[in-house]
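quick one if you have a minute, typing this from the bus. theres a chain ive been looking at and ive put its sequence and its fold in token form underneath. please have a look and point out which stretches look like helix strand or loop to you. anything you notice is useful, everything is just below.

***
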Amino acid sequence: MERPSHEVGDSGVLRAALVETLRSKRSLQSPAITEAFAVVPRHLFVPHVSVEDAYRDRWIATKRLPDGDVVSSSSQPEIMAIMLEQLDVRPGQRVLEIGAGTGYNAALLAHLVGPAGRVTTIDIDDDIVAAARTHLRGRRDRRSRCVR
């Protein structure tokens, strides 16, 4: 789905507002994780929702079964921030993520580990792996990869 140009232009403003929301909740505390959320564009990892919805502090369903049950989602940004703060990943580290999701968390992790680090995210679902790989390739980030 191609987005109208005004939505893409607003993404930086919406991303900054999300960062401020997470900081006000004290979910974002470290400068490195705050920067990762400020520069990694979540809307590129959830192209099936509006840019506005991508930057709300809510989880987003990304895969449903034919009966409508959600089987995969992009986690709520506040939860992701809390987990990354607890993980305390550092530049140069290698990270293995189980459950690729959209690839957004892997992109955040790749930002945190920097050029000397490496992130590998795995999943058992071929569709999820393919989508995450596409999203990560769109970022041209060589520090993260998605495998099945």
The first strand starts at residue 60 and ends at 64. The two ends are 25 Å apart (CA to CA).
